[in-house]
Amino acid sequence: xxxxxxxxxxxxxxxxxxxxxxxxxxxxxxxxxxxxxxxxxxxxxxxxxxxxxxxxxxxxxxxxxxxxxxxxxxxxxxxxxxxxxxxxxxxxxxxxxxxxxxxxxxxxxxxxxxxxxxxxxxxxxxxxxxxxxxxxxxxxxxxxxxxxxxxxxxxxxxxxxxxxxxxxxxxxxxxxxxxxxxxxxxxxxxxxxxxxxxxxxxxxxxxxxxxxxxxxxxxxxxxxxxxxxxxxxxxxxxxxxxxxxxxxxxxxxxxxxxxxxxxxxxxxxxxxxxxxxxxxxxxxxxxxxxxxxxxxxxxxxxxxxxxxxxxxxxxxxxxxxxxxxxxxxxxxxxxxxxxxxxxxxxxxxxxxxxxxxxxxxxxxxxxxxxxxxxxxxxxxxxxxxxxxxxxxxxxxxxxxxxxxxxxxxxxxxxxxxxxxxxxxxxxxxxxxxxxxxxxxxxxxxxxxxxxxxxxxxxxxxxxxxxxxxxxxx
Length: 473
Description:
Elements: E1 5-10, H1 16-24, E2 27-34, H2 37-47, E3 50-53, H3 54-58, E4 67-70, E5 87-90, H4 116-128, E6 132-137, H5 148-158, H6 160-171, E7 182-191, E8 202-210, H7 218-233, H8 246-251, H9 259-267, H10 272-276, H11 279-287, H12 296-303, H13 311-328, H14 352-358, H15 420-426, H16 439-448, H17 452-467
Helix pairs in contact: 1-17, 4-6, 5-6, 7-17
């Protein structure tokens, strides 16, 4: 397909979502935007955008593309974007929704307070009136304010004209144009691991299409909605049952070829429970250690709850793992010892007491494993503290910030923190994607990103909608 669909990206960060669209192909990027400069440098390095301030864009730079606008979204004049935008994508920072609230007496409608950043996302839709938009956020948005926040957002998108009079009071904008309403085709929480990302990362994805873009025939529209859901929910995906693992993306091989590497990792922990001797350690021996066979495939099925597999299906799944490793550029590229121009694979030094503690914590366990011992550390109720990833299970969510044991820790016993490049692989950033900034800035860029592979699935769904566009005929 030679046609390129134009994209305006908001709250872009380092460009995880946008990279997914780029990987899918068929999209042309007009503008990106973020309030921070370090991710802008990363984005510009990889996408070739010119970095401009909001003031420059609103002035003499307006109409030039592609540009990355650094500044608060509230200061961006969307009328300066030349041409039409087929797609608007973005995810306002989740903390913005702590102020999307309304007392119960207001639930029936008079006025609901909305987060300002979210309101500016709506302002972009009013100005640009894209054919499709993609809104992503944290799953907690579904239950925020007893569901009022999510309900309000869906209603805003579905009745844009009607709701704009309320929203423009928040954004301080007097735009008087009439807009098409959007039909919501998908609004669900997606688990990235079910789509091939080696990480349990759940995101709320809302996809809306302008009403005049959609098929007028109800049956065709229903089929389109079903196809979008199949792509984004992974209903036909083998990864739903047989997820890609950290061991595979770090070693650069499908699991069926990693028997020796897996056994070596787990044998390192043979004496750990006897050394720690806590109740938690004794329970781990009974529930985990004694059930291990040290066969990579059998233990993979055990830890992922995939009992009694169809072995032809399993073989197809490992083929899919290999194809994905090839697609991401990881195949045959073992991460250990690799050097990158951005120095993202440098192993950080750890304090000796931290390393001693970590040697007593096996994969998929955390600081609770050593509670009551000489290696104990504070952190009750916080599962992330000194938690090791498991070689055979999708990683827990890669986070952007935090010290005190929240860095994310390698499954090998002699390793501590994950490197930024290891985090990037768990997020499915290709090794060719280079980051700009200090180590902590790069960690934040990786942790805040939409996994590019999830972005690619979203792009596929968006393309399906655009190809069904009725408005251009």
